[in-house]
Amino acid sequence: MPPSIGYGGDYNPEQWPREVWDDDYAAFKLAGINTVTVGVFAWAHLEPAEFRYDFSTLDAIVERATAEGMRVVLATPSGAMPPWLARKYPDACRVDFEGRRHVYGQRHNACPSSRDFRRAAVALAGRLARRYGTNPAVVAWHIGNEYGGACWCPECGDAFRKWLRGRYGSLDRLNDAWNTTFWSHTFTKWSQIEPPNALSEHWRGPDHTAFQGITLDYKRFMSDQLLEGFLAEKAAIREHAPDTPVTTNMMGLYQPIDYHRWAPHLDFASWDNYPPADRSSTRTAARMALTHGLMRGLRDGDPFWVMEQTPSVTASRDVNPVKRPGVLRLWSWQSVAHGADAVLYFQLRQSRGACEKYHGAVLDHAGRTDTRVFREVAEVGAEFARVGDAVLGGRTPARAALLVDWDSWWAVEMSDGPNRNVRYLDVLTTYHRALWQANVPLDVVPVTADLSGYEVVVAPLLHMVKGDLADRVTALVERGGTFVTTALSGRVDEDDNAFLTDVPGPFGALLGLRVEETDAQQPDVVNPVTLFGAEHDARHVFEVVVPDDAEVLGTYGADFYAGTPAVTRSARGRGHAWYVATLLDDSGVDAVVRSALAHHDLLGPLADSPDVEVTDRITADGTRYLFILNHGPARTVPIPVPGTDLLTDRPLSSGEPLELPPTAVLVVRCDPER
Amino acid sequence: MPPSIGYGGDYNPEQWPREVWDDDYAAFKLAGINTVTVGVFAWAHLEPAEFRYDFSTLDAIVERATAEGMRVVLATPSGAMPPWLARKYPDACRVDFEGRRHVYGQRHNACPSSRDFRRAAVALAGRLARRYGTNPAVVAWHIGNEYGGACWCPECGDAFRKWLRGRYGSLDRLNDAWNTTFWSHTFTKWSQIEPPNALSEHWRGPDHTAFQGITLDYKRFMSDQLLEGFLAEKAAIREHAPDTPVTTNMMGLYQPIDYHRWAPHLDFASWDNYPPADRSSTRTAARMALTHGLMRGLRDGDPFWVMEQTPSVTASRDVNPVKRPGVLRLWSWQSVAHGADAVLYFQLRQSRGACEKYHGAVLDHAGRTDTRVFREVAEVGAEFARVGDAVLGGRTPARAALLVDWDSWWAVEMSDGPNRNVRYLDVLTTYHRALWQANVPLDVVPVTADLSGYEVVVAPLLHMVKGDLADRVTALVERGGTFVTTALSGRVDEDDNAFLTDVPGPFGALLGLRVEETDAQQPDVVNPVTLFGAEHDARHVFEVVVPDDAEVLGTYGADFYAGTPAVTRSARGRGHAWYVATLLDDSGVDAVVRSALAHHDLLGPLADSPDVEVTDRITADGTRYLFILNHGPARTVPIPVPGTDLLTDRPLSSGEPLELPPTAVLVVRCDPER
Amino acid sequence: MPPSIGYGGDYNPEQWPREVWDDDYAAFKLAGINTVTVGVFAWAHLEPAEFRYDFSTLDAIVERATAEGMRVVLATPSGAMPPWLARKYPDACRVDFEGRRHVYGQRHNACPSSRDFRRAAVALAGRLARRYGTNPAVVAWHIGNEYGGACWCPECGDAFRKWLRGRYGSLDRLNDAWNTTFWSHTFTKWSQIEPPNALSEHWRGPDHTAFQGITLDYKRFMSDQLLEGFLAEKAAIREHAPDTPVTTNMMGLYQPIDYHRWAPHLDFASWDNYPPADRSSTRTAARMALTHGLMRGLRDGDPFWVMEQTPSVTASRDVNPVKRPGVLRLWSWQSVAHGADAVLYFQLRQSRGACEKYHGAVLDHAGRTDTRVFREVAEVGAEFARVGDAVLGGRTPARAALLVDWDSWWAVEMSDGPNRNVRYLDVLTTYHRALWQANVPLDVVPVTADLSGYEVVVAPLLHMVKGDLADRVTALVERGGTFVTTALSGRVDEDDNAFLTDVPGPFGALLGLRVEETDAQQPDVVNPVTLFGAEHDARHVFEVVVPDDAEVLGTYGADFYAGTPAVTRSARGRGHAWYVATLLDDSGVDAVVRSALAHHDLLGPLADSPDVEVTDRITADGTRYLFILNHGPARTVPIPVPGTDLLTDRPLSSGEPLELPPTAVLVVRCDPER
């Protein structure tokens, strides 16, 4: 990894006249740009006809970048195939959820099972690696682009059946897993199995399936199938570039791909940070923090990259607001604060035409460097150059963890009953926000993670319980830890079949209760829950709990289950297990989460300032860097630790008032603890 | 028919380990269950490969049920075909409205015209009948499951053309019926006729067609075609089980199938009672009452069965609330009150996996009998066992009737103009609710019904007028009866062509008026109608009426037709004919309906308590059983008739105050009238 | 052209028994009807089998019409093909946007590239022309009906590629135009190009495309392709009827067809006036005025026809209100006021069946002539007969122009970014309404129009700037004119590629500013703009403007660009160029437009009465006819000019109070100016 924060972005000069290349590099110097991602959409350039390769333009691009001292991130172009490929190999195009074979168009459109596409993509990746693999300026390989989507073609059907054979071994086991006696679905030959889509098991779209089992497996299969394409290209690259790290730009909280299944195969994680529009800057910041955490959690706490962000506007949304002044800098530093060692833009110069011509760029259509956007980009570049490198490689030890599980995400959102309005991300982000506003150092980890280092583990909507998870959670609690889970957890096994026991299945004994009924109501129905003397709104799902030995902390205030438990806590060994039997509003979740954290003295600094984010990185030499970021209005807070703000060289004394204007950023090198 | 109320439900032990069968029967005894429906989804079990039959599991199930003294309802499994059938015979799968051939998946998915499917389904039905047809425990046959949907495949196209030849005889007559000179559609060969769907006559979905005639006929055809499948299986059963009654579980107010066309072919009617979510418990109760009435009306007042209801929650809705305490009992008794001789659940034990795993059941995943749901099920079972049988076979003589007509339903909802917001069920349920809240004994009958026994006949949205209906209605009025109809009635003939006369066509002379214009407005536009001195809201459709000799009872209060008639009544012979020229709100419809009923002294008991339902059954020995059901909050009412509440053995004196808590049920054996 | 206002409409007696023909003509005489359009949907009658022609019915229809002294508009029936054609030539049916080949059904459904359809349509048009082309009663030919829609079949694909070769000459030029290096789309063979639809470049529907260039060209191509069909029929007619004018009924502000590309090929323009439902009668009137203006602008100010309007209700809307009393007359006269020389109905007798059976007609199903609708039709007929002819052929000279550009319409609505809520017609109608309420004589013209006669040119959302437009606009300003344009103008060239300069591209120098950023916000976000001392709401798009020498007239009141320019005006030569950098509300646009008009003394009469429309026509002899139309409530206004109201023969003295009841119409023959 390079010895300073990576800064730059996607650079596609093949889309521009060569005359502007000089202007490009002059601007990059002004902006402190040191990294360029090249070749992402260059297939048609590199291989204008099958087996006819032409590297002349890419040679020139790489040579120039190298000459300018840039670090080069070299992409394989498999994210967008050229027209000749689709025309010659129609099977390279996908069949969509509606069963329609597509023809050439768009991008991210290749069938992941197409042998023709695979062969062509791997061959080109190998060629690229052979040509550029030993160039020391190439600091990383970037395979494909934003992997995603799915295909339901016959070739995928074949691959799916093969994948199922591998998973289940026998049809008997598969029939059991999918509970096929229900509705007479017993499969007697593998060939009877059809990819689940609008023409087979689905109605009303991808979340409505007659058989959750087959659809769940198709999601797992498709995630694996896309990974297989990535791995095939990676293998081709490895032949010629054995040491250069390989990644692909992920999309954060992206439902269709289980990034936890991909993580072992990435040399480092990277993602594209385009947070969904939200009028609350704090919710947006929390969501980005969650995603940064998810990315950092993929590789056991290793630093990651922000591979893309826009310097100003997106284009693909219905409404595309510009980033307000200061936001670019705030978010860029937030990335670093959470473990990013590179922060890159899409893209360095604005597209001339097609669907991204209004997407923001470091340089606009006129190539100006006197715009607000360019000035802000250059300001961040200057700060990164001056102080950013100090934190490089720094890590963020955490005693609290949030569990994220794609299987539960998939299972709960495709479930018929109890309530389609329950969305995994809504609940996950509500619990995460509470943890984040408490400014607790937090890991975001899969359910397979080692929990032995944590004191508090929060697992919202842990619908599916797999493997030895219940045992590991119980061990956490026994040794003094706290576990928090919610309604709709502990419902199904790895096959999405209900546990044939009381709800919540394997967590029942730990939680000291059983759930007898699950009521559901429309979104406007509120049941007030009284918890620690305050009332909070509960919505959507209301489980009727019969406590065994769990302590009742919160109760419903309405309906026929008024007065019965809504929040409980059981004592097991030296620890506790919380159950929140409904979906609480923000204040309710705050009450639960802060109580659990406080018990372990884990409330972080400035936890009373809900818009002020505080997080830290600790470098190899033990230096702690504290990042203070204000996502809200101006505010004065007490300085939480003594140290020096590297951005201003200002010394900070603990407890003294610190004025935080909107979008304020401090990077505090903490004084060594005495 | 068995000599006590049937109680039990769908029982699919083939989906469960045999170990729980003992638990099942122990629980059934606790709950008073005497009836099990078996085999509904057993095709894959019964015929695991083509022509290879295996009845071993079903034998065991039936033997055990027989041994336990259960009545067995034996289903043919044609509601869900096995995978091998779809794979071998792709034509067995449907082509959907979008023109897409489906592959294997879901259920209720077989093409009703597929010879391959038909042959297989009939063969299996015959085998089942041969094997179990003489078992006296088998009290009824249940063919298929919830027939519905439609297919637009080429084989259906052929069958449709054949059906059309049968209906019209010649293309000339067909061209006339469909008015094909409009838009140059004159068909010159039968083969030119395409099934009407998104690829031919439709846009914006099934209700938007360029030619109402072809679409209407396709609906009629498809209803007939599904019936043909039912009849073929019935014939196969009849060969071996000539006397056991045959039914299928209908879906009540289900638009795609004209149950009136099916009725003559059912030995008894049965339906699945899953009322749509409605925040008003009273509207829900009224809707169930309407549907019970419709079912009772299918077979001329014969008792029917509730073949399915959920003991707690559904799973297929977006939001699935649990039934509140007491509601299961209230609704079960309501079913009996309206003529049900059996009340069954779907299902007796909860599914382990797939899309109904969260659907409620008598026994939950853990198999508990100490849950609220099980207790309520057992309470109903005990009551049925103790007092329910008294009412078995009882009938409900009525002097008022509500006309329901699938043709009008179809025609008015696929009409271009005047207003797509007019929905048949909205208007039907509004008029029915008014009748129901008046607690008048009511028949719900087709337009072909003999009207000679009625004094009041209400026919909302009778858009299409067929056969001698106008004559029969006129005769009703002439002999002193009252006829009430509404806007948009009397518009089209059996071919859905406009009557080439003044509106409302054949009713014009009877009603003593003509409709000159039909205004339509958005749903938020209200025109106040003054009727009997009170003002009511009218919406959606406002007909401008020119009265001939009709008496004007209500007038519009706004717009350019302010002051003109909105409600009229004509005197003909000894009776009256009402016309409501707009869509009135509840209070307006109440005013009309109660005035009409009062004229015949037909206002029922407790008609002032809008949430209290009172209905009766009279058994063969002349005993009258009055059911009093409280669907609203607690209320005290005067006892309407002297008798004895069989549920409490409490004697009741007429006129004394009766406290009705929420969900109260009384089954009053009335004292013989003196 | 005939020497009196054409009055009548679509007449399809082949759809009715001959018995009513006599009644028809009796009624026509009562109503002053002099024109019938025949044969629009008669293909199946005229050619019941391929090459078998039967003109007997049409002969009878034309003979009778001729005998009755009617003017006959003879339609070719290609708007609705007969069943035999689709069955024999499946390629005659379209492939839709989803890629599905349709089968027979509906109308307006023929593939515009189908050789089989084209051959049949042209042959029949030729036959008709040969038979009726010399009949002097035939005053016009009406080809097809409401051309529209699109097809994506392989034959269209071939035609599209051919069209592209013609447009671009080489693939290099095409690749440049579509900016195909973006996303690796470089085409290396023509055959690689697929029609853009849901299976290729599109997602989320027709407005969402990965490549705007290909989609834009497909729209241009499809508009041309439909025109090619029209021209082929026209050529066949011309062989036998060299002098009779040929038209087709257009649909006004219809997005899919660029009527400006069609205009040179029409002998006169005609359109079908079915304004979309709007609760504001004034907005509806303004929209009709805009469309009349667009139609008049097609042929350089020549009179046009209203080929269809409904006398009472439509049927195809979800909700179909009746026209209120007086509205039919008001709108009919408005048509004439804007240049219509004929005003026709769809249709003269109501359809018996199918999807237009509830569409209004001059004669209803019963054929009555004593209805309100018939009376109003007859009243208009009488007025036209008495005074309408005076204005025949009159023209409306204008010094103000509104630019309409289909390319900009298409481009701005398919753009990814900045804001999907920006709709071309919303902005166009807002600016038009302001001009219309100012009662300025206005031309509505294409961007290719000669601007030399105008003083004020208003061009909202002129997203695309083509050819020498910027030069012509600059010349307008230099010689003293005023140019007004808005946000999102001047963004792209004819290929929809961004200008590689500051925004707004070729208008930048004229406007004296550059746009540095474009902010976008959700529809509920308002930024108050202060302009001439008053505050107006701005929404959707907020450009951050850096003025060069433009005068700042209005400024934003909120957000980080508060205080920066929202409305500017630059002085160039003797004129001015306005830039409105956001989307203002009605009052804001009024302020801009009225200021611009006032500068040229172009505010029209009664400009303070927003519901009162005043427009004029000047006949060949120089007489000016002023039309005063009240679209709002009753109002008293000063008489604007001396003259005589021809409808009442009442002399009018300038300045005296004139009472205008609702729907008032005056046709004032102005006294000659002294």
UniProtKB/TrEMBL annotation, chains A, B, C:
Family statement drawn from the similarity comment of this UniProt entry: Belongs to the glycosyl hydrolase 42 family.
Chain ranges of the Beta-galactosidase trimerisation domain: 398-602
Residues holding substrate: 107, 145
Regions that span the bilayer: none
All copies of domain Glycoside hydrolase family 42 N-terminal, residue ranges: 10-385
Enzyme Commission designation: 3.2.1.23
Any GO MF annotation of the entry: metal ion binding
Protein name: Beta-galactosidase
Leader sequence residues: none
InterPro entries: Beta_galactosidase_C (IPR013739), Beta_galactosidase_Trimer (IPR013738), Class_I_gatase-like (IPR029062), GH (IPR017853), Glyco_hydro_42 (IPR003476), Glyco_hydro_42_N (IPR013529), Glyco_hydro_b (IPR013780)
Xref: CDD domains: A4_beta-galactosidase_middle_domain
Keyword Hydrolase in record: yes
Reaction it catalyzes: Hydrolysis of terminal non-reducing beta-D-galactose residues in beta-D-galactosides
Annotated residues for binding of Zn(2+): 111, 151, 153, 156
GO CC field: beta-galactosidase complex
Residues annotated as domain Beta-galactosidase C-terminal: 611-669
One GO term (biological process): galactose metabolic process
Domain of life: Bacteria
Entries under PANTHER family matching the protein: BETA-GALACTOSIDASE GANA (PTHR36447:SF1)
Keyword set, alphabetical order: Glycosidase, Hydrolase, Metal-binding, Zinc
Organism: Saccharothrix saharensis
